[in-house]
Amino acid sequence: MKREIRGLSIFLLLICTIGSLSAARSEEQEEGEVYVAGQNFTLEQALNQALAENPPDARRRFWVVVSGRDAVLLTKAGANPGLLESIERARRRGGIIYVCQSDMRAQGIKPSGLIPGVLPVQGFGGAAADANAPQSDTPLPRDLQHARLILRSCADNAPVENSVEPPSAAETGGAQ
Description:
It is built from 5 helices and 4 strands, in the order H-E-H-E-H-E-H-E-H. By secondary structure, it is α/β, with parallel strands linked by helices. The chain has one domain: Hypothetical Protein Ychn, Chain: A. Helix 2 links the parallel strand 1 (30-37) and strand 2 (60-66). Helix 2 packs parallel to helix 3.
């Protein structure tokens, strides 16, 4: 009898453990896409697409990366009320809004001038981060291609394309 009770106790403990592991996995957010604004799409277009593909019930993390001149739109002085509302909706749905540090420097934007919740991100080849700049503890996507897209989008003066052609001899003045 004791052996049966002990076996039943172990079985119930095992079921409870498996159940709690399953619950923890279901609470983790799924990863969605990366939307890049500032090169081929405006910030408004990128946000609209992100919101359309990530409805409130999706429970999915996604990223909106802002580069180029659109970085100014993420400042307290540069954002309009409609844009602020779209950014807040994206954040409530699991969106993380990044702005490229290289474009912040180019536009003269200080981290303190950003809309609250917008995070600077340093891309490939960027200068060392400013010691006074807030550092993000928000991780890049687990998906390596998504993480590389974010870092490549924020690389100093680099296009988003997958390959980079070396300059021709004519472009370099014939010197190699």
